[in-house]
Amino acid sequence: MAKVLDTVFYDGGCALCHRSVRFLVARDRDGSRFRFAPIGGARFRAELSDEERAGLPDAIAVRTADGQLLVRSAAAIRLAARLGGVQRVLARVLARVLARVPAALRDRLYDAIARSRYRVFGRVAQECPVIAPELRPRFDLRP
To answer: For residues 62 and 30, what is the distance between their CA atoms, to the nearest angstrom?
Structure first.
């Protein structure tokens, strides 16, 4: 089966984002769903135009395999819908339910969490979560 990779761009200084990336890596055991790169890194600058980068929130964004750029709650729904592992069924049901909630309401909640993420979850000193050497090819950490 061919890999259909979404690229997850995450805030390299956010502890919540790091936990989210570790969660996704653990549920994408074969590496067939996601690649990861910090917001502001080389891959981020190469894949997104100036216009796309200018309007992005600084938490998590997803470039889908078909080229669509998803932000805020749409990005979170996409990630939940593509989860593997034991939580896959629950996450996909949750993603479908959330997709029915108006985007403006979902994004308000997303923005509230994003505004408080450093205060609640803290910051990290490194852009890449500590990962096993065999998983490092799934991360593009060039500055």
So the answer is: 19
Residue 72 pLDDT greater than 70, yes or no:
yes
CA–CA dist 84, 33 (Å, integer): 9
Long-range contacts of 114-120 (CB under 8 A, 24+ apart): 114/57, 114/58, 114/59, 117/14, 117/15, 117/16, 117/17, 117/59, 118/14, 118/15, 120/16
Would the pTM of this model clear 0.90, i.e. be above it?
Answer: no
Q: Which residue has the higher pLDDT, 43 or 92?
A: 43
Q: What is the mean pLDDT of residues 33-61?
A: 87
* Residue 128 in this model has a pLDDT that exceeds 60: no
106 to 4, 73, 80: CA distances (angstroms):
26, 6, 14
Instruction: Please identify which residue in the block is written with the tokens 């309007």.
Output: 55
Candidates 10, 26, 1, 137; CA nearest to 76 is 10
